[in-house]
Amino acid sequence: MIREDIELMKKAGINVVRIGEFAWHTMEPEEGEIDISFFVEIINKLYENGIETVMCTPTPTPPIWFTHNHPERMYVNRDGKVMGHGSRQHACTNHPYFRKKASEVTEHIAKAVGLLPGVIGWQIDNEFKCHVSECMCETCRGLWHQWLEERYGTIEQLNEAWGTKIWSEYYHSFDQVPQPGPAPFLHNSSLSTMYRQFSMEKIAEFSDSQAEIIRQYSDAPITHNSNIPFSVDNERLFEQLDFASFDTYATQENRASYLMNCDLWRNFKKGRDFWIMETSTSYAASLESYAPPHVNGYLRAEAAAAYALGGEAFCYWLWRQQRAGCEQPHGSVISAWGKPTIGFQSVLEVEEMRKRIEPLMIATKPLQAEIAITYSDQAKAFFQTEPHQKMDFRGLVTNFYHTFVNLGVHRDVIPEKASLQGYKLLFTPFLPYISDEYRKRAIEFVQEGGTWIVGPLSGGRTKEHTIHTNAALGELEEISDVEALYTYPLDGTGAIGQAFGESAPLGLWSTVFEYDKKTTVGTIEGGNSDGKAFITESKIGKGKIVHLGSLPVGEKGNALLMKLIDHYAKEAEVSIRTDVTEGTIVAPRIDEEGNQTWVIVNMNGIGGSVTIPGEALDCLTEEKVSEDRLEVGPYEYRVISFL
Question: Quick check: 509 and 553 in contact, CB under 8 A?
Fold first, then answer.
């Protein structure tokens, strides 16, 4: 079928493929008998036909010779269950024998294909920690104790940091510290969160070691295909990789999540375009479930948005439908019997669109926003330990982000360590622990004239996931010169927030401030904290810190939040914004001479409009566009350059 597949790929406009990520058995059917010749042949055949290759390491699927009769090599979940052979990610990636065999097969692959002209990139493994989280095996137990000793130095310092005298959890040596496995009730918060951080660091170290091997034999850039829900610290993971990529199967109803990924992955390796390494042509499915198919036209809109927001590649999973395995029903480009699938026409539409906009995308780059929203996988770990009433970190951040999209303000979603240069507004929502380093940079940003909006649910925990004892928000509260009186859940208390001419119910775990005429911006009416403040504003240097102590909820809450963002955006003279209608996005780009181009994409299938603020040119039709309201049809895309 290979010749047939290549011809079909050319007809579909496919110009890059990924291979090898689950093929360890094909490469090494018997332990020590490694043969990569098949992949060399395929890469060369593809290249001869104008198709380049991203080569993947096969480490998520160790073969049966690795796993059979070796439970000590396997992943162990929080309930102490040892995984068996099959599926993927069944091995412990920290086990020394896994590391040894993974290094061997990766080195063989890199030697065999590293210099082939068809190889334009590398993908390490596949979706780290997608199906599993923290491993509880004996190997990880030993490494955990080493990690703790390196972090705390002495067991006395660990006990003091974690407050282990509560419930008599006190330890006398590091090897007594348990993994957060089965227990009658909940583990110490420090134990749980630190173990998550330990696991995140170890998987990043594995990625680093794989990249180091590949770089000995290849100059092609290296990435990993990740996503927000996985149990990894993406900022740390991409530190030692060359470009960032992610997989997404968000449905069109969840387009906010899709757009947020684009805005975040654009900033993991700033200055280098990201890749969408996997998305479905129409729907995702497995033996147990399936998602609704995309409406005709949505895939093209999705791809146009990705390219406009800084994407370099838009790749599908998968090419030919698998005839066996657990993902037999999954959407693909070609069916198992070699015919076009329900998504094939959409793939052709994406290719037609790509050809039209590619010269314009190459000639421009995404314009940096003036508004930044900080995202943190470390915060995700804190919420996994302390979710209160099943708070979902991803959902909280996505809903918050969606408000910016609906307002039409251009925004960057940035990791914790990202530079703040060039921004006017910095939002730090849902960050329980604000590090000293982050706080220092944010304060400098404020002193130089920026506005830093902190909260909700930010700053109330220490590095060790304990509560501050000097003030509710620690040093940040003292710097802001505000007084936090209480922290407690406002859900169902009848508390109504009043601010910016709007009123809305308040919810989630909240910080309530003392009312002060000089600093209070938003007040609470009713409930247990009537007359107190939930939004404060403190001037520092040339700028200000705004504390958003509670989350306005419901439709009225969204209106209040939009008013807050709009108020501070106007005050900060944020200029990169549009009056685009909901469901349509504007992605501003800029060329070397400073000229702006807008890529406008409708993503809700209803159509929309946006005001063009000056004389412009439609780059696709070469017709002039007057300063007026521009209509965009369902799933339509437009590219407008200003004259």
Answer: no
Q: Shortest CA distance to 546 belongs to which of 496, 490, 486, 500? A: 500
User: Tokens at residue 38, please?
Assistant: 């098949």
Structural tokens at position 402: 């969606």
Structure tokens at 543: 């700028």
How far apart are alpha carbons 622 and 617 in whole angstroms? 6
- Convert the pLDDT of each residue in 260-283 to its tens digit: 999 999 999 999 999 999 999 999
The whole-angstrom separation of Cα 452 and Cα 537 is 10
CA dihedral (496, 497, 502, 505) positive or negative: negative
Report the alpha-carbon distance of residue 153 to residue 156 in Å, rounded. Answer: 9
Instruction: Tell me how far apart the alpha carbons of residues 562 and 401 are, in angstroms, rounded to a whole number.
Output: 11
Domains identified in the chain and CATH numbers:
371-571 (3.40.50.880), 584-642 (2.60.40.1180)
* Nearest of 98, 374, 262, 512 to residue 90 by alpha carbon: 98
Chain centre to alpha carbon of residue 437: 22
- Distance (Å, whole) CA 535 – CA 601: 35
Residue 509: what are its φ and ψ, rounded to 5°?
-65, 130
Active site residues: 127, 278
Quick one: tokens of 64?
A: 């049966």
**DSSP class of 334:** B
Cis peptide before 318 (omega within 30 of 0): yes
Could you write out the three-class secondary structure of 197-213? HHHHHHHHHHHHHHHHH
Q: Is the pLDDT of residue 626 over 90?
A: no
User: Could you give the maximum distance between any two Cα atoms of the chain, in Å?
Assistant: 76
Residues 6+ apart with CB under 8 A from 479: 439, 443, 540, 545
CA distance 184 to 602: 51
> Looking at residues 462-468, what average pLDDT do you find?
98
Instruction: Read off the pLDDT band of 331 (50, 70, 90).
Output: very high
Q: Which residue has the tokens 């330890």?
A: 171
With beta carbons less than 8 A apart as the criterion, state whether 343 and 297 touch: no
Q: Which one-letter amino acid corresponds to residue 176?
A: Q
Query: How far apart are the two ends of the chain, measured CA to CA in Å?
Result: 51
* Alpha-carbon distance values, 319 to 12, 326, 335, 343 (Å): 11, 16, 8, 11
Tell me the C-alpha to C-alpha distance, in Å, between residue 485 and each of 400, 439, 511: 25, 22, 8
**Cα separation values, 457 from 297, 385, 466, 471, Å:** 39, 14, 14, 15
The C-alpha R_g of the chain, in whole angstroms, comes to 26
* 531 contact partners, CB below 8 Å, separation of at least 6: 515, 523, 524, 525
Alpha-carbon 562 to chain mean position: 23
pLDDT at residue number 627: 84
Among residues 581, 237, 230, the alpha carbon closest in space to that of 405 is found at 581
Percent of the chain residues topping a pLDDT of 90: 98
pLDDT digits over 367-419, tens only?
999 999 999 999 999 999 999 989 999 999 999 999 999 999 999 999 999 99
| 235 touches 377 (CB < 8 A) | yes
DSSP assignment string, 473-503: TTHHHHHHT--EEEEEE-TTTT-EEEETTEE
